[in-house]
Amino acid sequence: MENTEDKPASAEATAGKVKIGWFSFSCCEDNTIVMTEVMNDHWQEWKKIFDFRHVRVLKSKNIFDEFDIAFVEGAIVSPDQEKQVKDIRNISKKLVAVGSCAVLGLPANQRNTFTPEQKESIDFLITRFGSLPEVKKLSDVVKVDVEIPGCPMSPTVFLEKVNSLISEFHA
Amino acid sequence: MHSFDLSLEHITKVEGNASLNLKVIDGKVTDVKFAITEYKRFFTEAMKGKDIAAIPAHLSRICGTCSNAHIMCSIEACEDALNITPSAQTKLLRALTMHGLMIRDHALHLYLFSMPDIFGKDAFLDLDENNPIEHQLLHDGFDTKSAGNFLATLIAGRSVHATNPVIGGFLKFPEESETAEAISKLEAVRPAVLRLIEIFKNAPFHFDRQTKYMALVPEDSFGYINGNIITSHNEKYEEKDFRSHLEHTVLPYSQASAYTYNGEGYMVGALARINLAKDKLHPKTKESLKEVLNLFPATDIFYNNLAQAIEILHSVDESIDILSNNKFLAEPIMKGERKEGAVGIGVVEAPRGTLYHKVIIDVNGKIKEGEVVVPTGQNQINIERDIGVLVQSLIDGSTSLTVGKSEYADGSDMAKEKIAFEIEKLIRAYDPCMSCASHFLKVEWEEK
Predict the structure, then answer these.
(1) How far apart are CA A164 and CA A162, in angstroms?
(2) What are the Cα distances from residue B397, in Å, to A105, B27, B384?
């Protein structure tokens, strides 16, 4: 049973709003925290212009149907995650890679550069949980439209990119 | 009696990813598997060979929201290995760093994750701005988070992956005008925090259970960095003992290591801290909360939320005190000695409970071994056990949450949906952090 999908919010409540998805893969989720801190000063404005359609850190009843902007943080570690991020790409007008793990793969991909002895010591865990042999950055798996680097991302750069994307949708 | 399986692939409004599989046969809960599904990123393996100076920033990346607690804990461990005793001012700045973290992180959990359950909303942003109470809480929530964020940023450089605190001291120091602004912001949110405490004191959810509580308890005033590890059975362990009193347990279905104490689950976090050290809270906090503090020690897991709200007030009062009574001057960074095989231990109270770091270095200060024990790993077995007891009591009709026995016992989709909601509320009360819990590869220690 998937408890995170639910009936869409009323069309009236979301009409004309920019549909937002926020997804986290393998990372420390620092960008999610920064986003919630940026929200301290922008929540009233965001409430008016954004339809937070799938943001698990904010809500339980998430909808996975279509996004104007999908923000994705974290590196890709497993075949399941590869499929998930491709699914996100397929239903998103813009896909934004957020933070160092998504943009560069680092530091989530630090095992890629382990010595043969280190790799051997973790091999049973890679096998047990069905991880990929090598951790991938987001652009290794899907087309990325916008990158917001940083560990964590800079709130200023995040706002600049968000505002620029909103302008595109309202143009 | 019905039989059914219930699987939650994602738990929402928590830090990171977790899942749950639950089996009910003939009305009896027979199996509960609470799995932390974040993939391991092998931080303790990756730290091997790195210079000790790089370790606090490296281990900070285990977890975004707890990052400043990891930095404080790692610095303590590294300074222990390098034989550095921090200055009095550095200790104050570190205390302020932790207070900023507690205010910001607890406020995120209480307002954005837990409060919607109380108001029957899906999200905090769904609170009604036209309702005076909900309007006030919306502003309270973001203002309180913002005050914590401001304090953390002022003192530590950033509220996530702080840049100012390093081994041996701080790289920047707050100006008097900046500390005045911080005091003003903290004073402004104090009434909001009192309202928050009232909300969680009166919250309608309760789940009583007996377990052991464990926390790092300072000898003097309530804090998050110094002290001894104390249990609710009056056992006491020194920081230097690291985790010798804990038993590591592998849950093969979970990416995280779990721990027991004397073979049983136990709880760390705000509820443990307030249960064990409420008498050490700031005098102004105690003065404001006489009646509320009488509720502790408590065995109601949902009072972990109330305990977090109390800690926000303590951190506000303590920070105002420290900022009002101290001027911060530039100090040089202290240097230590790099000795072959030196061992360093750090123990702090992170927002979700006791956090342990250990390093062993070589003569050049390179890391030979490292180990990290995080709060959510320690709470994992308790969470699992509580879910089993909760679901059984829902089915049996032996809990105040149960409206009607058949509501939960018939195995229908509606029953499962309601049970899933109650489980999520319980898990959220623990405020677990899965990013932390799945960070590492278990190291087998060979002390030389």
Answers:
(1) 5
(2) 49, 11, 20
Write out chain B residues lying below 8 Å of A110, CB-based. Answer: 41-43, 46
Distances from the Cα of A92 to the Cα of A27, A71, A96, A137, angstroms: 22, 10, 10, 18
For residue B297, say if its preceding peptide bond is cis, omega within 30 degrees of 0: yes
Q: Which positions in chain A touch B367 (Cβ < 8 Å)?
A: none
What does the domain layout of chain B look like in residue ranges?
43-378
Whether A59 sits inside 8 A of B123 (CB atoms) is: yes
What pLDDT digit, counting tens, does each position of B102-143 carry? 999 999 999 999 999 999 999 999 999 999 999 999 999 999
Q: How many CB atoms lie within 10 A of CB A75?
A: 30
Q: Are B213 and B232 in contact, with CB atoms under 8 Å apart?
A: yes
Which residues in chain B are closer than 8 Å to A127, comparing Cβ atoms? none
How far apart are the CA of A120 and the nearest CA of chain B, in angstroms? 12
What ipTM does the predicted assembly reach?
0.92
Find the CATH number of the domain harbouring A55.
3.40.50.700
In a domain, A2, yes or no: no
The whole domain housing A44 covers 11-166
The pTM is what?
0.93
- Is the Cβ pair B12, A4 closer than 8 Å? yes
Res B406: pLDDT? 52
CATH architecture of the domain covering B43-378: Orthogonal Bundle (1.10)
Q: In what order do the strands lie in the sheet with B18-25?
A: B4-8, B18-25, B28-36
- DSSP for A141-168? TS--SEEE-BTTB-HHHHHHHHHHHHHH
- In a domain, residue A5? The reply is no
A80 part of a folded domain = yes
| Residue A77 belongs to a domain | yes
Q: What is the pLDDT of residue B402?
A: 47
Q: Rounded mean pLDDT of B168-186?
A: 98
- In the stretch 324-383 of chain B, residues with CB closer than 8 A to chain A read none
Q: Give residue B446's pLDDT.
A: 28
Q: Are B275 and B55 in contact (CB under 8 A)?
A: no
Separation between Cα atoms, residue A64 and residue A69, nearest integer Å: 12
What does B419-444 look like in DSSP terms, one character per residue?
A: HHHHHHHHHHHH--BHHHHT------
Residue B433 sits at the vertex; the CA angle it makes with B428 and B435, to the nearest 5 degrees, is: 145
- What residues of B are in contact with residue A49 (Cβ under 8 Å)? none
Residue B222 has pLDDT above 80, yes or no: yes
Distance from CA of residue B88 to its chain's centroid? 26
Question: Count of domains in chain A?
Answer: 1
Distances (CA, A) of A154 to A95, A137, B163, B165, B329: 18, 19, 13, 19, 28
